[in-house]
Amino acid sequence: MTKPIFPSFAMALALLPLPTLAQDLPRQGNGVQRTDAGGLIIATCRQGEGCHCYQSSHSLATLETQTDLSPPEGLDAPILVSLDGALFWSEDSGHAVDLTYGGDGLCDPQVFPEADTGLPRNGDWAMTITGHSLSGCPDQVAAAIGGDIGIGRTERRAITWPRPFSMAPLTADNPAAGPWVNQGGGVWSTEVLNSSGAMGANARVTMTARILSPVEIAVTSVFSTDALAIITGQTCRSTTEARLRRHG
Q1: Boundaries of domain holding 172
Q2: Are residues 65 and 157 in the same domain?
Q3: Are 163 and 58 in a shared domain?
């Protein structure tokens, strides 16, 4: 099983490309037993990194039609494998496929509890930057920051949310980002950056994500620094608002 491969929001909350195959299928967990013997397994793999395994709700006949690939004869439940962009069927088990491509040999579909039904759904999500505000920043700095935000800009990407659930896909490619903390009530937060500079100058970036529904999330990113306090006497703070909405 591979480590999660999900890009993050940049400073302006711009989503980068995400894997699209099996975007409507649940993320698989470690050591969770398969309970639906009729489900087919889809494995998205990378050479040397192993696979993410998913349980499809589609029949073998449907998947065969959608992929335009004929599965091996005599098998009721072959594995559909996506390897570095190539798509093919395998007669091996999901565990064997994961091991073959460098994983730890775990390919167990996760069963989602009823409590997860209100969480964001996997699929095609569009992110729109909806607002931006500044406080305590010198005019030249405010003009430079405001010009880079791009109010109204929309980008659409596929997202597969992890289980157990977190907002990790939003910051997965940022090594400086901390873990997302569940604040309760559908609110998650993380600290993306917290650094101290010379003469006590500090910079901090925090993100908050609020689940409005299974198909809509409100995201707030706040950048603050007191490096310019000698000029303004205040902490310079930039707040960017965005909405993620699932389509389809």
Answers
A1: 123-247
A2: no
A3: no
Query: Tokens for 8?
Result: 């993050």
Beta partners for residue 44, in sequence order: 52, 82
Same domain for 240 and 134: yes
pLDDT tens column, 130-140: 998 888 887 77
* Residue 9 in domain: no
Q: What angle do CA 210, 125, 219 make, to 5 degrees?
A: 25
Give yes or no for residue 9 having a pLDDT over 70: no
Regarding whether 127 and 205 lie in a shared domain, the answer is yes
Q: Going by DSSP bridges, is the β-strand pair 40-46/79-83 parallel, antiparallel, or unpaired? A: parallel
Q: Which residues contact residue 11 at a Cβ distance below 8 angstroms, ignoring those fewer than 6 apart?
A: 205, 221, 223
Clarify whether residues 95 and 211 are in a common domain: no
Neighbour count for residue 169 (Cβ, 10 Å) = 24
In which region does residue 241 sit, left (phi positive, over 0), alpha (psi from -120 to 50) or beta (all else)? beta
Last residue of a domain, one of 50, 79, 111: 111
Residue 230 has pLDDT above 90, yes or no: no
CA distances from 82 to 20, 129, 186 (A): 11, 33, 33
Q: In the chain, how many domains are there?
A: 2
What is the percentage of the chain residues whose pLDDT exceeds 90?
13
Whether the pTM exceeds 0.85: the reply is no
Question: What is the chain's alpha carbon radius of gyration, rounded to the nearest angstrom?
Answer: 21
